[in-house]
Design brief:
The protein is an alpha+beta fold. The chain has 4 helices and 14 strands.
Length: about 240
């Protein structure tokens, strides 16, 4: 009985708090075709560049978000054939603003102190800024300066990843099931034999059958009375069937 009550209590607790914590992150995947070497920088990429972005549900697509308070940007990883740059790691210390489109086509950008990513509604994009070391990097301040990189391209596409459906149930369903679970806590003692129904009745039925079988095996005409079985909490006696 204690185990059942604890199980029902746990189910009720999980269902009640489930809808309150049902927050889904916002995910975007971006792709763009590289256009080769960027002028002056003498750097660039081939093939396709990608950007993977994850924000909390506090971000509103189509609106510019400034700074990092509250902490909204969770991931922002740019990658092409030349290098991979983690904008998300840099964001808490040097992030300024970012925008993700609410619909297609739409503008999107990330602006940091030393890096920028821009992708406009016409399909033109570029990534530029100070980066880690890579072969042939451009050093505008001489051999001891930071590597600077620029990639350019066209045919950019922002795709918002659909949010999967809940694995359990909706908020309304959770409230219904939590009510059932709570009701089960109240009715658990009755279901476990503390009322006129439940396990006690099952035991009575089994005992009745045993006594009935015993009476059938007794010698006919012995004149013995049929055995009786106590079948209820109130002490009622029922003769076993012969």
């Amino acid at each position: 009985m204690i185990v059942l009550k604890m199980l029902l209590a746990a189910i009720a607790f999980v269902l009640l708090i489930g809808p309150l914590n049902a927050h889904a992150n916002i995910i975007y995947n971006w792709t763009g075709d590289c256009q080769g070497i960027a002028p002056v920088f003498n750097t660039g990429c081939t093939g396709q560049a990608t950007l993977h972005v994850v924000t909390t549900d506090a971000y509103i697509p189509g609106q510019v978000f400034f700074g990092d308070t509250p902490h909204v940007l969770l991931e922002a990883l740019y990658s092409d054939s030349t290098l991979t740059f983690d904008l998300g790691i840099q964001w808490p210390s040097s992030g300024e603003s970012f925008l993700l489109p609410a619909s297609q086509p739409g503008d999107g950008f990330f602006s940091l102190t030393a890096q920028t990513f821009k992708s406009n509604a016409q399909g033109v994009w570029q990534f530029e800024g100070e980066t880690q070391e890579f072969p042939g990097c451009f050093r505008p301040g001489g051999p001891d300066s930071f590597c600077t990189y620029k990639a350019i391209g066209v045919n950019r596409v922002f795709t918002r990843v659909p949010i999967p459906p809940p694995s359990c149930c909706s908020e309304g369903d959770s409230q219904v099931w939590s009510s059932i679970a709570v009701a089960g806590l109240v009715r658990a003692p009755r279901a476990l034999g503390r009322g006129p129904r439940g396990l006690r009745s099952t035991t009575c039925i089994r005992a009745t059958r045993r006594h009935a079988n015993a009476s059938m095996d007794s010698t006919p005409g012995s004149g013995g009375s049929a055995p009786t079985v106590r079948c209820s909490r109130l002490g009622a006696q029922r003769p076993a069937s012969t």
